[in-house]
Write a structure and sequence with these properties.
The complex is a heterodimer of chains A (176) and B (623). With 176 residues, chain A is of the alpha/beta class. Chain A folds into two domains: 30 residues; 143 residues, Glutaredoxin (3-Layer(aba) Sandwich). Chain A contains six helices and seven strands; from the N terminus they run H-E-E-H-E-H-E-H-E-H-E-E-H. Chain A has a seven-stranded mixed sheet with strand order 2-1-5-4-3-6-7. The relative contact order of chain A is 0.17. With 623 residues, chain B is an alpha+beta fold. Among the domains of chain B are: 165 residues, no CATH class; 102 residues. Helices cover 62% and strands 11% of the residues of chain B. In chain B, strands 2, 3, 4, 5, 6 and 7 form a six-stranded antiparallel sheet that branches. In chain B, strands 1-10-9-8 form a four-stranded antiparallel sheet. The longest helix of chain B has 33 residues. The radius of gyration of chain B is 26 Å and the shape is flat. The chains are: A alpha/beta (176), B alpha+beta (623). At the A-B interface, helix 1, helix 3 and helix 4 of A face helix 11, helix 12 and strand 1 of B.
Chain lengths: 176, 623
Amino acid sequence: MNKNIKFIIIILFSLFVFFVFYKGLEKPKNYLPEKNLNKIETSLVFKNLNDQKEILLGDLITNNSFSIINIWASWCLPCRDEHAYLLKLRNINKIDIIGINYKDKKSNAIEFLSDLGNPYHEVLVDLDGTKSIELGAIGVPETYLINNKILVKKYIGPLDDAKFKEIINLIKNEKN
Amino acid sequence: MINQIGNFSLFIALFASIFLIFQSSNVIRNKSKNLDGKIFSALSVQSLMVLISFFSLIYAFIVSDFSNETVYNNSHTTKPLFYKISGSWGNHEGSLLLWLLVLNIFLFIFFISSKKLLNKYRILTVLFQELIIIGFLLFIIFTSNPFLHLFPIPKEGTGLNPILQDPALAIHPPILYLGYVGTSIIFSSALAALVYGMVNKIWAKHIKKWIVISWIFLTIGILLGSIWAYYELGWGGFWFWDPVENVSLMPWFCLTALFHTIIVLEKRNIYQSWTIILSIATFSLSMGGTFLVRSGILNSIHTFANDPSRGIFILCFLLVLVLLAISIFFIFQKKLLKNFTKTFLVSKETAIIVNNWFMMFFLSVVLIGTVYPIFLEVINGSKISIGPPFYQKLIVPFLIPFLLFMAVGPKIKWIKDNLSKINYNQFILFILSIAISYLLVKLYGISYLLILPLFGLGFFLFFLTIKDFFSKNSTLSQKISHFGFSLFILSILFNGTLAKEFSSNMKVGDERKFLNKIIKFENIKIIEKNNYKSLVANFKISDEKSSISLNPEVRIYNQPRTLTSEAAINSTIYSDNFLVFNVIKDDGYYNVRYQFKPLMMWIWFSIILISAGGILSYLKKNE
C-alpha cells in the first residue's frame, strides 16, 4: 500500500512537471516582458548608486517634460559605445537622464562613470535585474524616451547616429 | 542525390528499429529462442544506415550542396574545410543526427561486448535502447529532417555563426554527446537488470565501464565548452551559469554520484535501489537537458532552435520514458536483493553516501536555478532571472564541509572503521593549511569571510591527496582524480580572488597605468582573410621585469555579417593576460579591457587530471 502511494505521488509529480513545461512552451520566450508599451512602471523603488538612498522612480520622471531612462552596466561593451551619445544628449537638451545600473558591481560602475563621464542626473541600482524586467527591459543597453510619464519610444541595443538623431527630432517636434 | 541517400537510409534505420523492437520482445516473451544472429545483423544494418546518413550530410556540407536546406542555412562556400565539416553538427538537425549515430554505435558496442552476460538481459537492454532510438528517428524524420530539399537551388549559403567557428567548439558537441548518450546505455541496462533481478556485483562490474566512459566524455565535453567560452566569447570567464551550461553540469553531478555508488555495489552488494534511481535520473537529466536547450523554453546564447513543435515532441517522449522507467522500478523493485547488510556509521559505504548527498545538493541547486523561472512564470506569471550570485551563495558555503569530507572520506575502510586513526600527521597538515591560508588572506588583503576556511581546506585536501600517493590505501586512478580536484578548487579560489580587471577607452599610442603595469596601444592594422576582415591591434604590457605583446582582433565576417572579438591571451603557468578590444564608432577610440587572471592554465590542467583518473580507471581491468 505504502509503495502504491509513493508510486502514485511520483507519477503525479512527473505529470505536473510535464504540464508546467507544456504550458511553458506555449509562450515562446521565457523572459519576454509584458507588452504594455506605453506606460512606465513609476511605482518602482530603487537605491541610488552613491548613497544607497531609496528613490521612487515616479519622483524622478517629471510631468510636462522629457526624460530618458537608460539601462546600462559597466561590463556591457555596447554600453560603452553608446555612452558618447548619452553625454551629447545631456549637453544639448537639458533633459533628465536616469541611469539604471544593471547587475553590476558598485566599484566597477563608479569607475566606468569616472572614466567615460557621467551623463546621468541620477544613477539607480538594479542589482539582480528584476526591476529592469518590470520596466520591460530584455537586456542591456536599453534606452526609453519618456514624455509626460508616457513612453514615447523604446530603443533596444546601443544608441547610434540614427537613433540619436531620431531622439533629437522627437524632442524638437514635441516642443514646437 | 546525396540528399535522397541520406533520407532513405534514415527510413531503413527506422524499419530496422521496428524490426528489432518486434524481435526482441518476442525473445523476451519466450516466443522464439535465441535470435542473437538476427539481432546482430539488424543492429549492424541500422548502425550502417545511420552512418551513411551522417556521412551524406557531411558530404553535402563539404561540396556545399545548397539544394540541402540545412547546408544552405549553415554553410558558405568560402568557409574553411574544417568548419564546413564541423558545421554539419553545429546546427540543430545535424547535431540530432550525430546524437542518433552515437546512440547506434554505443548500442552496437554494448551488444558485442556483453556476450558473457544473461542473454535475456542483453536483449531487453537492446529493446529499451531501440525505444530511445526510434523516438529520435521519428523526431529527426518528422520535425528536424536534415535532408530537406530546396528548389530552386540557391547559389550561396547563409554561413555558420562565426562564434561557432572555433576548433574547441568543433569537437565539443561530439564529445559531450558521447557522454550524454553513454548515460542512455546505463539507463537501459539498469532497467533490464532490474527486470531480471540481476542488480548485483557482476552487473555493477559490467556497467561500471559504461559509467566511467560516459563520465570521462562528459567531463572533457564540459571542459571543452568552458575553454571555448573563455577564448571565444571574450568575457574573460569560463563558467557563466548559463542554462545551457547548467544542463551539462546536472547529469555530471548525477553521474559522479553514480560513479561512486557503483563501486559500493561492486564491492559490497548494497545500495541497489539507489544505483537504479541514479541511473534513471542521470539519463532523464541528459534528455531533460536536450529538451530545455532545443525547445526554446529557455533563452540563452546557446539555444539553437525555437520551434515549439519540436519541444512538445521531446517533452512527450521524455514523459513516456520517465513513466516507463518509474513503472518498471516500482513493479520490479521487489526483485532487488533483500540482504540487509549492516552498514556502520564510520565506513567507506557511509563516506560514499555522504559524497552522494553533496552531489545531490549541488544538483538540486543547479536544477532549481535552471527550471524555477519557468515554473514561476507558468504558475503565477511573474518573471525572474537567476544569475551567478544565486549559485555562488548556495554552493560556495557547502564546499567547506564537502572539502573536509573529501579529504577524510577516502581514507576510511570498507565495512567498519574507527575514527581514532586521525593521526598527528593529518592534524599537523590541517594546522599548516590553515596557517598558509591565513598568511595568504593577510598578504593579499582578501576580505571575504569564507575565503579563509575555503583556502585552508583546499590546501588540506591538496596536501592529503599528495600524501596519498605514497600510501597503498586507494587506487591510483582515485588518487589522480582527487588530487586533480584539489588542484581545481585551489586554482579556482586563486583565480577568483586575485583576478584583476582594467578597462578604458584608448586610441593608438595611448598609455595607461594599471597596478604595476603599463599598457600601451602600439598600433592597429587591417588584414583581409578568405571569409573575414580582421582588425589586429598590438598592445604592449610591461612591468619592471618583462614585457609581453598581445594582438587581439576584431573580425568582421562576411557570411553572415557579424562582428566578433578575438581575445588575445598570453598564458603562462602562473597567470593569463587576457586582452580584448572593441570598436567604438567614429572617433578613433577603442574600448580596451585587460584582465589579469592567475592560474588559469591550472583550471584546465586540473580538469584534465580529474578525467585522466577516470581514463586510468577504465583502462585498468581489476579495479
